[in-house]
């Protein structure tokens, strides 16, 4: 790993990650800037050192905000968050798809008065979206596997934990809980 891609894991003041998915990471430049602005404490370091004429310092691998950020209880209504709520599974055929192959389906079609709200949109694969088209669930005989709901930030964080990123630095592991079960002593 080069200095260029040595991101810092960002924790809230309670030492929980700001976000699981996408994982809250800052570039080393942003991390160092925040250290000098005294907005964060360094929790763990990389072996790599950056040097300038006046100082040399280890790149931070984990930083924690000094001031606790209250996460809003209601997450933003975005396509990504709808997919995350539905765990990237098509709500009609139940199969999992990569994000670019997922679409946003109105359970009650817009042409039939359905609104673009948490409780009327679900994740669907292109094939199912096409099959359902402008029909209601009853007309199409296609019902979402899970009734769409307004999730809380915590529910989305929980879902995000099911999708660990490909790369995790050793020093991050103490602060990330990908499994709900802890090993007994
Ligand atoms: Zn499908």
List the helices and strands and how they pair.
Blueprint: E1 8-11, E2 25-26, H1 28-36, E3 40-51, E4 56-65, H2 79-85, E5 102-106, E6 121-125, H3 126-132, H4 137-140, H5 153-160
Written description of the protein model:
It is a single chain. The protein has five helices and six strands. The strands form two sheets. It has a four-stranded mixed sheet with strand order 2-1-4-3. The protein has a two-stranded antiparallel sheet with strand order 5-6. The longest helix has 9 residues, at 28-36. The mean pLDDT is 90. It is an alpha+beta fold and 185 residues long. A hairpin with a 4-residue loop joins β3 and β4. Zinc ion is lined by residues 90, 92-93, 95, 124-125, 127-128.
Bound compounds, each kind once, are: zinc ion
Mean pLDDT metric: 90
Number of helices: 5
Sheet with the most strands: spatial strand order? 2-1-4-3
Rounded to the nearest angstrom, the distance between the terminal CA atoms is: 34 Å
Structural class: alpha+beta
> What is the alpha-carbon Rg in Å?
21 Å
User: What is the beta-strand fraction?
Assistant: 15-25%
State the oligomer. Answer: single chain
Number of strands: 6
Residue runs with pLDDT of under 50 for 5 or more positions: none
Biggest sheet, in brief? 4 strands, mixed
| Mass-distribution shape | elongated
Order of helices and strands: EEHEEHEEHHH
* Helix-residue proportion: 10-25%
